[in-house]
Amino acid sequence: MKKILFSLLMLSIISTAYPAPQVAADGEANADFGKYPAKNQQEAFFKIKNTGDEDLKILRLLKTCGACAEIKVSKDEIKAGEVADVTLKVAAYSLSGAYAKNFFIETNDPAQKFFRFTFRGNAVPAAEIKPSTIVYAGRLETGKPYKQSFQIIPTLSGIELGEPEIESYYPVKASLNNKGDAFCLDFEFLPEKSEGEMRIKIKIPISKPEGWKPLEITIVANFSLKFIAVPGKIVLPVKSDTPIENEFQLKLVGGEGKQLSEKMLSIDKPEGAEFKISNIENNIFAVRVIFSPSFIDKLAEKKNIPLKFSIPDTEPAMLDLSTE
C-alpha cells in the first residue's frame, strides 16, 4: 500500500514539475458529407483546443489521400486554454464513390503527438467506367492489334456525351456508341515499333448536363523487346556420376517479325556445360544443355550459378541453376 501511495505521489510531483501542452478537439472530430456530386467541393470546420498548461505548437498537417484535401489551422501556436480553427476542403473531382479518410495534426503534445480527424462521404461521378478509368495493358506484341472496350454507365439522367478526344503520340482508333442505358467506347491500337511505351489519354466531353469536366480514361502499355528463359530456373541434384541433360527455351517477347539466328546468340558458357541449339521457330530458341559431373559438384558447392544468354538490342535472358 505504501508503494502505491509513493508511486501516486511521484506521478503528482512529476506532472506538477513538468507542465505540458495537451491537444483536444473542441467539438466534433469527424465530418460526414453524405452523398454529393463529385464535381462539388466540400468543406468542414473543426476546432482544436489546448487543454494543457504550455503552448501547443502545430508542427505538421498530414493527409491520407494526397491531393484530395486542403487543411488549414488558424494558428501555429495555441496558448493554454485557447482554441484554433481547423478548415478542411475536399477538392472537386478528387474522390469518387464512397470513402472514409483521415487527416492528422502533429503537435508537441508529449502524450498524443498526432491528433486525428475523420471525414467521409459519397462522391457521385457523372458516370461509372468499367473495367476502370486506368488500364494497364502490359507488354504488347509488335504487329498484333490491341483492342479494349469500356462500358460507360451514367449516374445522371439525360446525360449526353461528345466525341472522344485522344491525347497520344501513336495513331489509335476510338469510337463511342450509345447502347441505351450505357455507352460503349471501343479502343484499338496497332504497335508497329519494337520498343517504346504507350500512354494514351482519352477525354469524353459531357455535353449535358453542363458544368461537368470530361470523363477521362488512361491506357498504359509497353511494347519493348524482352528476351527470357523458360523456365527461368533449373534444379539439379547435389551429386551425379553421369552427365545430366536438360532442355529449355529462350524466347524473344514482342519481337514478332524479327528474324533470329544462332549466330546472334551469345552464351556465357561455364566449364562443364555443353549447349546445343536444336531449333529456332517463332522467335524461340530450343536449347539442350548437358551438365558434366564436375559441373554438378561445382554447383553443389556454390548452391547457385546464373547463366546469361544475349542477343543484340535487348537485355540478356537469365537462367538460374540451383541444387535440390
Tell me about this structure.
The protein has helices at 2-17, 293-302, and strands at residues 23-25, 30-37, 42-50, 56-63, 69-73, 77-78, 83-90, 97-107, 114-124, 127-130, 134-139, 146-154, 160-161, 165-167, 172-178, 183-189, 197-204, 206-208, 215-222, 226-230, 233-236, 244-253, 266-267, 273-281, 284-291, 304-310, 317-323. The chain is mainly beta. It folds into 3 domains: 2-124, Immunoglobulin-like; 127-222, Immunoglobulin-like, CATH 2.60.40.10; 226-323, Immunoglobulin-like. The N and C termini lie far apart (65 Å). Mean pLDDT is 88; it is low at 11-16.
Keywords:
Immunoglobulin-like; five-stranded mixed β-sheet; single chain; 324 residues; mainly beta
